[in-house]
Amino acid sequence: MDELNCQIYGCRRCQLWQGAKHAVPGEGANDSKVMLVGQNPGAEEDETGRPFVGRAGRYLTKTLLEYGIRREEVYITNIVKHTSPKNRKPHPDEVSACLPYLQEQIRLIQPKIIVLLGASAKETPRIAGIKYFEIVHPSAAMRFTKMREKFKKQIAELAEQIKQIQQSQI
What we know:
The chain is of the alpha/beta class.
């Protein structure tokens, strides 16, 4: 994983690196059964080099914990590893440039569940044997009451799926 992260830090496959302070490879348990994939790093993530540490990330962490999922137990990354101008949705060529990194992260971590946070994360390649779980992006859940309710139901369902995986390994 360290070697892959070094490759991501030095990435020049698309133009996004030019406006970024830091690449944001991802973080968490390298043997996690759960991987969360978002769209792209925002301003706070670009400042720190860590994924989901801004407002949406704090909300995500808090909501996961409400359902017994600790951030340290999952691996969190984004489909694109550099921030985009004005936090716009990544362009298809930017997503394509980063997909090999995400594919390698999936290969190394071997999660049982991949949680797709928002529309761009749906571009994550599907691999047999992995359960994919599409949920509302936490930033949308923070802004809209109906989305918040849906998000919490989806996190509750995710927690149930994690329990089932844990029980099957006993």
